[in-house]
Amino acid sequence: NVFFFFFLIFLSSFYRKSLSRSSVRSRMSLKSPKAYNSLQKGAVIWDPKPLQVKKIFEALKKGLNEYLEAHQAELDYLSGRHKDTKRNSRLLCSGNDFSSPSLSPLVKQIRSVERYIRKLEFHISKVEELYEAYCIQCRLRDGATNMKHAFSLSPSTKASRESLVELYKNFQECTEDMCFIESALEVHLGEFHLKMKGLVGFARLCPGDQYEVFVRLGRQKWRLKGKIETDDSQTWDEEEKIFIPNLHEKFEIKVTELRGLATILVGVVTCDSVNFFTTKPQAIIVDITELGTIKLQLEVLW
Description:
Layout: H1 2-22, H2 24-27, H3 50-88, H4 105-153, H5 158-186, E1 192-200, E2 210-217, E3 220-228, E4 234-236, E5 240-243, E6 251-259, E7 262-271, E8 282-287, E9 295-301
Antiparallel strand pairs: 1-5, 1-9, 2-3, 2-6, 3-4, 6-7, 8-9
């Protein structure tokens, strides 16, 4: 038991040194006063959610790789066209050379795609770097939790109490660093462009009916009103809205029917955004009522 106790003290000392070396703020230049001015030392904004972050990271990386593959295919196609043009036409011999100051539209397009591919590759590497740092802090935080539990089972001494205090500080530091990385990762999530496609309700939708749709993602809100016309078409006062993705929040959609001065709640649903990180527009149809008699159709482009 004595050997075990001193072994825990040794681990605590090693853990403190390891944590100081691995601190995100000391070894990664991620701070931006404008973007993260609220993320100061000692201020934890929320509890880290490693499982949710992992899910979003995997979806984000997959979506970025889809964009990379699509643009790489476009580059290969354009490069093939350029080679064929140089080989088959004498009109484009010197002006289309990559080193020439006078570039054809095709070569300019190739250059543009190449620049975008480099940006995508840097974007992917930055996201991977952030998530790797996040996993390190997550493991250190779990280690601090396990060691606190082990010390709590040992006899209470001055050394053990001091170690528990130090472990608690380390735990707090890891938590802050994880929250810091989560906010830095959110900057790389891009944008969601939502388009209103209308309500689907079959017999439930009648000419003259008026509805209000309220979409919320964290602090971001979108409120729009629509009316069912006599020819069963729908008119909405707003059709498109941009949302900034959030690691922790889901889309909340609320639909109400407007009847004069009264409003009748049709339904409230939540929608996870993890499937929206893809190159193609996603058609989203959600059941507003429990029986699915009224549905809301949206289109999401990332």
